[in-house]
Structures are given as structure tokens and as C-alpha cells.
Amino acid sequence: MTAQQVAMARDARHEDAATIARIYNQGIEDRIATFETEPRTTADIERLLAERAGRYPAIVVVREGEVVAWASAGVYRARPCYDPIAEHSVYVERAHRGTGVGRLALQALMADAEAGGFLKLISRIFPENEAQPGATPQGRLSRGWRLQPSRQAGRGMA
User: Fold this and answer.
1) In a domain, 152, yes or no
2) pTM to 2 decimals?
């Protein structure tokens, strides 16, 4: 692997908002990763990062000094019984799809979510999203990943 191919995951920062918005908007335009139809602005992403900070992780993947993918977790359901579950998304810049950066973003997000006390991550994956199965653990389509055993004996989560 050359130095140009090395990618690194890190926490998303305020200054990443414009690039995150651009990547997210590619997902909206391509119609393979979200039902959203309205493009996001830098201010929208700044607000999202600020609202979720401290509770829900957000990750970017950097390759050659450029943010090329991002992943984030957010509220799954408002009821308190769902607090240890988060919904997540992964978005990859068009030119970097299929290169493993989505998998790296997801793995880093899963590690941060587990460290933050989450038991499970949930996502909805479009069947048209051909790159996504390779990014999921064991390369399979899945709606969620159990991060750690349930805290309640006999009440494990599938």
C-alpha cells in the first residue's frame, strides 16, 4: 500500500462541515443512500454536529489530507427504552466509493458507539447501494449490529 492510499479515521470537527455537506449532498443526488431530497448546507451540518456532540459519535475518514467519507450516529427512537440504540449512516465521496473508506468509517463509528455505551447500531440500507454490503461486518446486508451484551439478563437484543 502506498502513502497515497492510506486513510485514517478521526472524530468529525466543526471545520469538516462543508466537506461533510458536499459528500452528504452527493448521497442525496445519487439516490442510493437516503430518502432525503433537500441538499444540506454547511450550517445544517454544523448544527447537526453541535446537537449530537457528547452523545452521538461522528467520524470522518481522511485520505491524502482530504475528508473522503463520514459516518454518524443519532437518535433511533425518542422513548427512553431505546437510549442504548442509535441509528447510523455512512456516506462516501463518489470518487472514493468501493475503496474501503466506508468500511473504515463504519468500524470507527462502531468503536466510538460501543465506548459511549451504545448496545446496538441500526441502519436502513438501500438494495441499490452496491458498495454498502462490502462495508458491513462480514460483508452482509444487515439492519443492525450488536455492540455489547445487553445489560439486562435474559433480554438480549438481536
Assistant:
1) no
2) 0.81
